[in-house]
Amino acid sequence: MSKLKLRHLITTGAQEAEMIRALLEDNGIAVIEKHHEVGAYASIYMGFSAFNVELYTSIEDYKKAQELVSELEFVDNQMLNEETESYEQGKEASYYMKTAAKIIIVLFLLISLFIFFYF
Q: Helix 62-70 crosses helix 77-118 at what angle (to 10 degrees)?
């Protein structure tokens, strides 16, 4: 089973994300949405959300999707490029933070076991 590798495309408001998703899906590009905070629940319960939405697409479709999104009038091209770069940097930092948290948890458990058996 191969893993689907995604790449962050853009973070935008809910209404703009809906338009971008429709554009990309009309061009044969699959899109995955990630809502901030309780945005997904708010859109189901109230019909709209005031929270931002992150859009992801596969690595293979990323360039084509970026070209299509950059042609839209309401999307700032500089924001699209900066956001992609900052996401990649944040992804690296979050990986190291997760790894450090795992190490701390394992050390805590080992120390707890040591104290439990020897005291």
A: 130
Range of the domain at 34: 1-75
Are 2 and 41 contained in the same domain?
A: yes
How many structural domains compose the chain?
Answer: 2
Considering the domain architecture, whether residues 48 and 94 belong to the same structural domain is answered as no
Segment 72-88, tens digit of pLDDT: 776 666 556 555 555 55
Does 1 share its domain with 52? yes
Residue 53, classified by CB atoms within 10 Å of its CB into exposed (0-12), middle (13-18) or buried (19+), is buried
Per-residue b or e along 17-52, where b marks 16 or more CB atoms closer than 10 Å to that residue's CB? beebbebbeeeebebebebeeebbebbeeeeebeeb
Greater pLDDT, 104 or 49: 104
Closest CA to 91 of 3, 7, 4, 2: 7
